[in-house]
Design a protein that fits this description.
The protein is of the alpha+beta class. It has one domain: Protein Transport Mog1p, Chain A (3-Layer(aba) Sandwich), CATH 3.40.1000. Helix content is 24%, strand content 35%. It is built from 5 helices and 11 strands; from the N terminus they run αββββαββααββββαβ. Strands 1, 2, 3, 4, 5, 6, 7, 8, 9, 10 and 11 form an 11-stranded antiparallel beta sheet that branches. The longest helix has 22 residues.
């Protein structure tokens, strides 16, 4: 076999091997796309208490929330809080009279998957106007509207393994019964009135029992405040 023939055989063999490799090779693995981790909402920290103005009670607690409750930053209440869905309620002119034109006034009607309802209202003011937030409360405004105050006191709300406290009132009018929970919130841990304070009010109609309505309110609060922070003033 001459050199030309040998070269031709070698060339044909290389072509055959290359064709075989292209036909049967495994495709190269495609690099996996990086997994995007879910975004964690930043938490805001606040103080909550059952009394306000300059009265600091033993029920004061520090809490964390994914919601920005600052007077400057809040423009609307969330339309979804866990399994609660809400929509805004138009507030009447009486709010401006009671709270002397508050710097913040928002209210939503929420419903959960069980059909339970809750009205959540937030009013906030700075400086001397904040006094009116403590003067007009559910235990004064409801009776003024013809409701009878059945019971009033401080109630614990369990959040995780810790507890916060709220004011709780049970009220009735013409066969209707309602649980009102209310408390106060500060963004400033010195509770400086110049920096503002919020009064928060949650009203739950009683449809099954007082306990069921209260449990609905507690469930709602756990959607607002994700955790209680270990903190001491003194």
């Amino acid at each position: 076999m001459n050199r030309r023939t040998v070269g031709l055989v070698i060339a044909l063999t290389c072509v055959a091997l290359a064709t075989f490799w292209l036909a049967y090779r495994q495709p190269a693995p495609v690099p996996a796309k990086p997994v995007t981790q879910p975004t964690t909402l930043p938490l805001h920290t606040y103080l909550v208490d059952v009394a306000g103005w300059y009265e600091i009670t033993p029920n004061e607690r520090a809490v964390a929330s994914p919601i920005d409750f600052s007077i400057e930053g809040m423009r609307a209440l969330p339309t979804t809080l866990g399994h609660w869905s809400g929509s805004p309620i138009e507030l009447g002119s009486a709010v401006n009279e009671w709270f002397e034109n508050p710097d913040l006034a928002l209210s939503n009607l929420y419903r959960d998957l069980r059909g339970r309802q809750a009205w959540f209202s937030v009013f906030g003011s700075r400086s001397r106007k904040s006094y009116f937030l403590f003067e007009h409360t559910p235990i004064t405004s409801y009776p003024a509207a013809g409701w009878a105050l059945v019971e009033h006191g401080i109630a614990p709300i369990l959040i995780g393994e810790k507890t916060i406290y709220v004011q709780k009132a049970t009220l009735t009018k013409e066969g209707e019964r309602r649980i009102a929970l209310y408390w106060y919130l500060w963004s400033d841990f010195n509770r400086d009135p110049e920096k503002g304070v919020l009064t928060m009010r949650l009203h739950i109609p009683v449809t099954a029992s007082d306990q069921d309505a209260f449990d609905a309110g507690a469930d709602f609060l756990r959607e607002i405040f994700s955790q209680v922070i270990t903190w001491r003033r003194f």
